[in-house]
Amino acid sequence: MKKIIAMLLALVMVLSLAACGGTGDGNKPKEIKIGVLVADVSGEEALAFRNYYEKYLAPHYGVTLTYTEQLEDAAAEKAAIETFAAQGYNAIISLSASDRASQLETCAQYGMYYAIASGMDDALYAEHKSNEYFVGQIGPSMTTEYEAGVAMGKYFKEQGVKKIGIYGAFVPNPMHVYRLAGTLVGLGLSYNGATEMEAIAGQLYAGFDLNAVAGDIAVTHYIAGYSDTMWDELGAAMGAGIDAFISVGMATTFFADMLNGAKLPYSDIDSFTSGNGKNVKEGSLKYLAGKYASSVGPIFAAVINAVNGNAIRTPEGYALSISQSYLVATDAASFDACYGADQGDKPIISTETLDTVIGEDVTYEQFVAIVK
Length: 372
Description:
Blueprint: H1 2-19, E1 33-38, H2 44-61, E2 64-67, H3 74-86, E3 91-95, H4 100-109, E4 113-116, H5 122-128, E5 134-139, H6 142-158, E6 163-167, H7 174-186, E7 190-191, H8 197-204, E8 213-214, E9 218-223, H9 230-239, E10 244-247, H10 251-254, H11 256-262, E11 266-271, H12 274-281, E12 285-291, H13 297-307, E13 320-323, E14 327-329, H14 332-339, H15 351-355, H16 364-371
């Protein structure tokens, strides 16, 4: 009996030490496992985000970080979250947008934290900002998207263009709607007489009408979406003698070869990648407003804080929703200044920066400051 009691006491001591960490480091953060939902697994921007997360941040913070395969729809997103939940993951970072409301609701069902890493979903935020499992969203707001369009339009107006073509990307996608509205205003144009952000954006959701545009610069061709004829449409615009092709997204994905080959000045709102560097230096990409790889760093830090019990909330107690602006390049030097500063082991948002906002006493104001 004495031997049995002694063995039980020893076992209790071992279990107690294990509960405290076993190493004497009672302050060591818990092991964190984060799943990342992705719709694009091969694009340069997607790969840049992934390298930053997997090769730079995860090793530094000792985080298990696992990417999904390409997710095609809402059902695939939900299934991926359920798989992560079954494997004991603590949080989800989303780079996929088929149904973010369902993503958040599924995470909350399984007690997992949820964050949006790129872009904004204002409707989702308005409805779910009080959800304890919603860490938040960081990316360009619709106002920021509009301002990016204004700046791009002003650039080409200052270059003296008189006749242009526009690629509206995937209007009525909200980010493309607001970029397009801003571009028209920056060019000094009106749309059905409107010259203000919401007045123009509200109309653009119904589609773009060339006949509604008025001003000193002629918009002679408009292309949107993806189709088998869009390259022919661009060819027609180029044949009509346009001075520039202004795109609110994805021109570098679809049209770079044609535009570079014709040496026609063009723009894009995209990201700082090696491919776009080549388009700037060897092609005719004259204006690039873009994200950079480490721009997804702050939301990663916010997730770590939430998992460790130090969730950062707004003064009202809501999830984070912080707008993040674009960097802009108009020549090789300005491109290198943006792209070069975000490479290797010293990215723009470094671990040294993130370390200042990971911990128990981080304020909302401190966190906003590093994003801004």
